[in-house]
Write a structure and sequence with these properties.
Helix content is 57%, strand content 14%. Strand 2 (25-29) and strand 3 (36-48) form a beta hairpin. The chain folds into 3 domains: 17-112, Tetrahydropterin Synthase, Chain A (2-Layer Sandwich); 153-187, no CATH class; 192-234, no CATH class. Strands 1, 2, 3 and 4 form a 4-stranded antiparallel sheet that branches. Helix 2 packs across helix 3 (79-90). The chain starts with a helix and ends in an 8-residue tail after the last helix. By secondary structure, the chain is an alpha+beta fold. It contains 9 helices and 4 strands, in the order H-E-E-E-H-H-E-H-H-H-H-H-H.
């Protein structure tokens, strides 16, 4: 290109930029099923007028998608915490590169109806109570397992334990009741035996009639191969039968 042509070429017209903002209001599903948070969003950016509409849609989609993903971790009982956390995450979001928007900022303010907030608070109380009850049940199971395995499975320990709890009940430990209790406990299936039985039962429950018959044949053959034909004969041909 000649210097003369360059001299007559008009300079490029600068693109006019302006500051824009978008204020979408959306409902976000919370961590409680059927409970929603109201989000008033504010998006600001700088860009050309020509692509303002397209940039607006793309930026809005990013904010709404991100807010919906984050809001699912919170309930209406913790609006302030949720607002702070979501705004912090929006400050780190990656904005789409196929826009002319720059200097993008976004934030939101969460709200919920009083009835929704009260319901969320009550729901969390119920969940806390349920967790406590489950923990208490686990502790009770451990206590009973301790009584079974460490105390009543051993007659001499059981007698000592009983006397410690009932100092005046000496006559009650002189008979063979604790020996009979230990014998009864020893005759029952242990935890590992029950676990194996439960696995086999659940496996058979998911099979059709033909596959159940094949499985029973395999079990009979396995027992016979290990020299326990007596057990093989005790297996019912139909696991669903009497």
């Amino acid at each position: 290109m000649s210097p003369l042509r360059d001299w007559f070429t008009p300079p490029p017209v600068p693109v006019a930029l302006a500051q824009f903002e978008d204020r979408p209001v959306i409902d976000l599903a919370s961590s409680i099923e059927g409970s929603y948070l109201r989000a008033a969003c504010l998006i600001r950016w700088v860009g050309p007028y020509e692509t303002e509409a397209a940039d607006r849609l793309k930026l809005r989609d990013v904010v709404i998608s991100h807010a919906r993903q984050e809001a699912g971790r919170y309930s209406a009982a913790h609006l302030e915490t949720a607002t702070t956390a979501i705004n912090a995450s929006l400050s780190r979001v990656a904005w789409p590169r196929d826009t002319n928007a720059r200097d993008v900022t976004a934030g939101l303010r969460l709200s919920a109806d009083p009835a929704v907030r009260d319901a969320a608070a009550e729901w969390e109380k119920l969940q806390t109570r349920l967790r406590v009850e489950r923990l208490q049940a686990r502790l009770e199971i451990e206590r009973l397992r301790h009584l079974r395995d460490d105390i009543f499975a051993k007659p001499e320990v059981a007698r000592t334990y009983w006397l410690d709890k009932h100092p005046t009940g000496l006559e009650e430990v002189l008979d063979d009741r604790f020996d009979r209790i230990a014998e009864k406990l020893a005759s029952g299936p242990g935890p590992s035996t029950l676990a194996v039985a439960n696995v086999i039962r659940e496996f058979l429950a998911g099979l059709g009639p033909e596959h159940k018959a094949v499985m029973m044949e395999l079990l009979q053959k396995a027992l016979a191969d290990f020299g326990r034909a007596d057990l093989a004969h005790r297996l019912p041909p139909d696991p669903d039968g009497p």
